[in-house]
Amino acid sequence: MKKTLLFAMTLATFLLSSFCGLAHAQIAMVVGAKSAVTSINKEQAAALFLGKSSQLQGAGTPMLVDQSETSEVRKNFYSKVADKTPAQVKAIWARLVFSGKASPPKEVTSSAEVKKIVASNPDAVGYIEKSAVDTSVKVLLEIE
Question: CA angle at residue 55 from 51 to 95, to 5 degrees?
Fold first, then answer.
C-alpha cells in the first residue's frame, strides 16, 4: 500500500512539473524581418508594454501588439519581463487610458495574428511563442 501511494505521489509530481514546464514556454519579442531595430532589453520591453515609453530605439514610435488578455503567452510575458500579473497590467493601462496619456497595445487572439501584423508593419512590435518564429520576423529579445 505504501509503495503504491509513493508511486502515485511521484507520478503526480512528475506530471505536474511537466505541465508547468509547458505552460512556461519560451517567448520571443519580435519585429518585422526588415526592421532597423536589432535588439531590446527587458527593461525597455517592460517600459514599452506598460506605457512608460513610446519610443523604440531605431524605429521611433512603435505599434504595440499584445496577445489576448486570457492568453498564457501574455501572462508569461508580463510576468517575466515586468514582474506584473494580468490584473496589474490591466490596472496600469486603465489609468493611462483614463488620464489620456497613452493608448493600450492592439490586442489580438494568437501568435499567428501577432506575427502577421508585425511582419507586414515596419513599426509594429509584439511577442510570440519562440517556437512560432520564422523568417517573416526578427527576434529582438528572447524571454526564458
Answer: 15
Give the integer Cα–Cα distance in Å for 75 and 27: 11
Question: Checking DSSP bridges between strand 27-32 and strand 63-66, what pairing results, if any?
Answer: unpaired
- What tens digit of pLDDT does each residue of 23-38 get? 567 999 999 998 888 8
Distance in angstroms (rounded) separating the CA atoms of residues 135 and 144? 21
The answer to whether the CB of 120 falls within 8 A of the CB of 128 is no
How far is residue 5 CA from its own chain's centroid? 40
pTM (two decimals): 0.81
Distance of CA 79 to the CA centre of its chain: 9
Contact 136, 76 (CB under 8 A): no
Cell numbers of 95, please?
Answer: 489609468
Q: Collapsing DSSP states into helix, strand and coil, what is residue 60?
A: strand
**Is residue 120 helix, strand or coil?**
helix
Q: State which fold the 26-143 domain adopts.
A: D-Maltodextrin-Binding Protein; domain 2 (3.40.190)
